[in-house]
Amino acid sequence: MAEALILDSEAVNALANPAARSSQTRRAAAILRLAYDKRALVRVPAPVLAEVCRGVRYDSAINHLLNNPGICVAELTRLAAQRAGHMLAKHRLSSAYAVDAFVVATALQFDTAVIATGDPKDIERLAAPFSTIGILAL
Amino acid sequence: MSQPAAKLSVSVPGELADAVRKRVGARGLSGFVARALAHELEREGVGSLLAELEEELGTPSKADMTRARKAWPKR
Asked: Which member of B60, B72, B74 has the closest CB to residue A29?
């Protein structure tokens, strides 16, 4: 499978609200530029939407981003969900970290992937065993 | 449920057609073309988002591009 850029909730918010988050947005735009140059896919794991969608009144910027044909939501598959559960168990983490684990499990569906995240510490811990995953802290 | 397939008639250079048929065979051609079209549409979408962002924020700095390159794992 291809290379991919995986966006976590901070990356999605940074790209959806560039005026409000300019320094994070600049870093997110740089990794997006690199993904474009590498012809990589851009994916938002479906569980991330639970962290960024806060009601019809607040979701217009997120919906605008997700309506872009290049920013695709990666549905949560049984395999990815089970992998996420195994990661949590291995690291003795509670389900409070489930979305982070889903993000890493989504990255594992590609040959190589970069996760753009505002929360590098937890993602790095979960992704540490996997050389195919890179982390970009926003 | 998958959507019904639409038939497209396209012309491509003969050399390219030969290379694709050699790679995927006649039966795999539709799937290969569908994936390629989907990928190009996605890429155009990312390109348009980048254009919007770069109009608002300017092109990414060298420092941000260097960080991004360092983060990308080697294949």
From this structure: B60
